[in-house]
RNA sequence: GGUGACGUGACCGAGUGGCUAGGUAGAGGUCUGCAAAACCUCCUACAGCGGUUCGAAUCCGCUCGUCACCUCCA
């Protein structure tokens, strides 16, 4: 399985050739959504990027196990409130069972991911379903001397961990002393912590808290970062290949995950390669819930938000995201989305051109096809160069357009295909289709309205009938029958119905 | 304050020191009943100032500007 795929690793701050721990198997974990509200388009970037990554790894022949969690418990609103988590809060506000809130948003998320062309993960574990595993992880951390119980809660002892030489902050390039100097000390619950850097592994649930589980330390709920450490270990092992997430999760979330895994019996950084996708921006500013400058995925498809005035289709959004490299910010605007829409359609039109590239009968193929073959092969190989260079989908898309221009040129004058060998052409068209559809995951999105087309056809039917052109009338009837449509001539005029055969 | 990014043409967005990224928009042309699509040609760049180099968008320094993380966040 020789290939030159290299990936940028946040942990080493370098691009390195990708080497699976246990080829041909590859384990990928992506931090999934917290299902307490609807996702916005910024939240879609990670899933789309890692969908392309897992698709490409599979294309390269690896057997991928892709795990993306659902967080339905445990993320605190902030340390300043009474320790109620987001889902509880939403459930209380809407008078719902907390799991009902989680389920509704999880279902919506799944629908959105599907239309965005993201294949479902192989395993989608929920935090609430892995309380036992999380409790066990906490116990291991305590046993290893890096966690302590205080007032029914359990905290991770960052100074002790760091003193043991484990390098807290190595992922995000942070120094414990500086973090201490810059930390705020006016946060609620702080009095229980030995150090302001310590973070909760288990939080005691107060009387109001709806989501609660029994534990050796009393009734409570798991800390923010624990689920990913526990669930990735359960499904991918103590050490696996790739862990992904948004750049804003790097600290503290991923830093804490690594600390937890190192401090548990896993004694690992969880993943060999840590990948972080950059943010979507609006006028240069990060799209975020707290800033309020976000467009929900529903609003994106529906149109009419203050940021995007028009609706944009799921595939337009996907193409838009893939036109930028995942480690760059990407700025969203109507103008940018419209440009993406046209680019996407151009790429789709390209798919329809592929099958037409056939040398006309009777045309002699040129004896020496070396020059044209070499040119086409170069363009074909260019498409992989981008992907292999840290999943640079922007370069890949650009190369596909270059290849497409060539295809369109041939399509305009099929006789010029004589300059090419059959093999080079097939290689190029196969690559184009595979990269667009299988790897980038861009599918044709039919724009035509079937009923409108049908009405149009029935208009021609009526004309033919009036002209007593019964040959044409029968032809239209037969063609529609093929589609499961029967034409009905009634006194009121021409109508149609679905065939009941 | 600490840490880390980034400033590319009308817009978005790639760029490994030397070879036109690409998409959208704009201009001209081919094709065409009209149009669209497609193809060909063209146009507007590398924040500023220095430096290293035969050569810098790409390396170094300074200045200006923008942003991110340090608090939940993809």
How is the secondary structure organized here?
Layout: E1 6-9, E2 14-17, E3 25-30, H1 41-59, E4 63-68, H2 86-94, H3 98-115, H4 131-143, E5 147-150, E6 153-156, H5 158-163, H6 176-182, E7 199-204, E8 220-222, H7 226-236, E9 240-246, H8 250-263, E10 271-277, E11 280-282, E12 285-286, H9 297-302, H10 314-322, E13 330-331, H11 334-354, H12 370-388, H13 393-412, H14 422-439, H15 450-466, H16 470-482, E14 485-490, E15 493-498
Helix pairs in contact: 1-10, 2-3, 4-7, 7-8, 10-11, 11-13, 12-13, 12-14, 13-14, 15-16
This protein binds one RNA strand of 74 nucleotides through helix 1, helix 6, strand 9, helix 8 and strand 12.
The CATH superfamily of the largest domain is identified as HUPs
Structural class: alpha/beta
Radius of gyration: 28 Å
Number of strands: 15
Residues in helices, as a percent range: 40-55%
Shape: globular
Number of helices: 16
Cofactor: Zn(2+)
Motif ('KMSKS' region): 286-290
Binding site for Zn(2+): 31, 228, 253, 257
Motif ('HIGH' region): 33-43
